[in-house]
Amino acid sequence: MTLASVCPSCGESSYGVCERCLAKSHTISAIPSFISIKVCPICSDHFFNGRWINEDTNSAVAKAIGEALNIDPNEAALTIVSNQVSPTIVHTHVEINVSGAGEPCKSFDVEVRVNRATCDRCSRISGGYYESKVQIRANHRRPERTELDRALEIAGINIDLVQKTDRLAFIAKTIWLREGLDLYIGSVKAAKRIARALLREMGGTISDSAKLTGRRDGKDVYRVTYLVRLPEFPTGTIILSRQHIYEICSTISATNAVDLETGNRTALNPEALRTAELVGTRSDAKRTLLVAIDADEVHLLDPETYVTLTIKKPPYISKEDEGKEIKVVKTQERVFILP
Questions:
Q1: Comparing C-alpha atoms, which of 200, 201, 202, 339 is closest to residue 282?
Q2: What pTM value is reported for the model?
């Protein structure tokens, strides 16, 4: 015995809802003469279903029309051609094609009225609102401008990554100081993300403190400050520690360095760093010519006097480097080749 499939709506023989009932279910009984949307004049976000959404005006118009007509995008194709005739009026031509219904395409015109209203985020930015602060400093020194510029770039990248899920992820204010940089952030969550991102890329340490600023909805409200202290010797720094010349090659989680005489890599402990002396930086290195390479020695020109010097061959120099230009750092006692 074979069981026949029937339309659950009218009972006629059909596999699923029949075309006639499908068409009836999508009949538009009343076409609105106009539809209103709310758009922020500053950031162009629009208000939809009780919240602000980061979309442009065309997307806002399409969503508002689809919502007003109660169109299921899985069962009907909605085509909208928009023409914004003024900052507050958008003329739209709408076409609806019900898939599988066998009916001709329905089309009509709808006027969309754009109401301007400042969103919650822009309102708070203009009012100087912030929930957290990220302070960028350096340990036992003043941070370089290039470091602070990079820190600000990292902060901006992380703000962009979380803005769609955290509307208070914004930089309300940037204060440049002699000792570093202060960033005023709209949300604690965004500030914490920035601080961690700075630590991952630039190294150093993070500490935080919270200050009670009031109560909201019966709960205490705190303003949190994250202090990011960059390492005393950042990547590329040349230091003298315990009679060895090192170049700092990483400051993430630990200070790793390469011995410029032996080529060995090592992790410098806090005591070695505490007694270290600054020799220079990789950017201070001078260029010179590697004249010749023997089994255990190399011959190069002094970058200042152009006298030929002979030093122990570091392991990162090979015969193929002979005759090439290299970077060196010069101390009072010796010249060291940078890897």
A1: 339
A2: 0.71
Statement: 285-339 belongs to CATH 2.40.50: yes
H helices of the chain, where? 19-25, 57-69, 120-126, 145-162, 188-202, 270-274
Q: Which amino acid is at 81?
A: V
Q: What is the largest CA-CA distance in the chain?
A: 105
Pairwise CA distance, residues 92 & 34, whole Å: 10
225-261 CB burial, b ≥16 within 10 A, e <16: bbbbbbbbbbbebbbebeebbbbbeebeeebbbbbbb
CB 141 within 8 A of CB 163: no
Question: How far is residue 215 CA from its own chain's centroid?
Answer: 31
* Distance in angstroms (rounded) separating the CA atoms of residues 59 and 44: 11
Distance in angstroms (rounded) separating the CA atoms of residues 63 and 59: 6
In angstroms, rounded to a whole number, what is the distance separating the alpha carbons of residues 331 and 280?
A: 9
**Is the domain covering 19-118 a CATH 2.60.40 domain?**
yes
Report the C-alpha gap between 43 and 172 in whole angstroms: 15
For the chain, domain boundaries: 19-118, 128-230, 285-339
Ranges of the chain with pLDDT below 50: 1-4, 17, 23, 26-27, 29, 101
What is the number of residues in the chain? 339
